[in-house]
Design a protein that fits this description.
single chain, Substrate Binding Domain Of Dnak, Chain:A, Domain 2, globular, DUF4363 family protein
Length: 147
């Protein structure tokens, strides 16, 4: 588990390149996670200046995540999953007009994505299914972010 946290931290550090709120994993070496939900809790919320731009970035990441999974690019998939989680943590606070069950679905999908990209053996079918569910959920929530 510690290796996964260290790998994810390394992936994010190189990928932040001037963006605010890189979505870095914020954990110390002594932290042990016992539940899948803890992976999402370890992701720092992204600092966003423009909700609309952040929503567009989220949409783009959801679309390109599938490509990373299908091409077996584990590093890129992990980086994108982490960035999606960081963006979502900030965007979810702004989506007050969205349906609560959609917000819960997106969070559950992100927890699943984070868990799967951290697994030693990938279940590509599950990752693609989670990504599609995330796409559908975010598509339904996005209008509430653009009001």
């Amino acid at each position: 588990m510690m290796l996964v946290v260290l790998l994810l931290t390394g992936c994010t550090a190189g990928a932040s390149e001037g963006k605010k709120g890189s979505g870095a994993v914020v954990a110390d070496d002594s932290l042990q996670t016992d539940s899948k939900k803890d992976r999402l809790a370890l992701i720092e919320a992204a600092e966003i200046d423009d909700v609309s731009s952040a929503a567009e970035e989220m949409s783009s990441l959801i679309k390109t995540f599938k490509t990373a999974v299908e091409s077996d690019d584990r590093e890129e998939a992990a980086r994108q999953a982490e960035r999606m989680a960081a963006l979502w943590k900030s965007l979810s606070e702004k989506a007050v007009d969205a349906q609560p069950e959609k917000l819960q679905q997106i969070e559950a999908d992100l927890v699943g994505v984070l868990d799967e990209v951290a697994a030693s053996d990938w279940d590509k079918t599950r990752l693609v299914d989670l990504d599609y569910s995330l796409y559908q959920g975010f598509r339904d929530v996005k209008p509430a972010l653009q009001n």
